[in-house]
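Troubleshooting: if your tokenizer reports a length mismatch, compare your output against this known-good record of 143 residues.
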Amino acid sequence: MLRRLLPAAAALLLAALLAACGHASRPAAVAATGRIIPVSDTIDGAENADTLRFGRLGSGEIAVMRFVLHNVARRPLRIVSYERSCGCLSLDYDDQPIMPDEKRPVALTFDTRGEWGWQFKLVEIRFDGLPRPTRIFAEAEIH
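Known-good structure output:
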């Protein structure tokens, strides 16, 4: 019975592959996982901030928090730089423009080596053409 099913399965697989040939693939949509932080050209500096809570971490642990930047501006935005209050933080992002209403994943890494107790750190993300940065606070209790 298996011998009869194998040729049929191979024919179906071949038909699917041939049907897919010549069709341009569309880029996959970004899944909005994690906190979504809106970025706009109309939000003033006080509102253009958020806090990512890492919770309790062990000293020496390297933690990664993923979040999503959502461009709610009327024009493309591109991250041009970021500043941090501590060398223990780093930001991993794609430097391609984020189109209006597009979401882009970002990762914030917190290296707790040498840190103890309650920590409250700051990352300022600067976008091309925006007068104020988006401020991301990182909070953790390190033991």
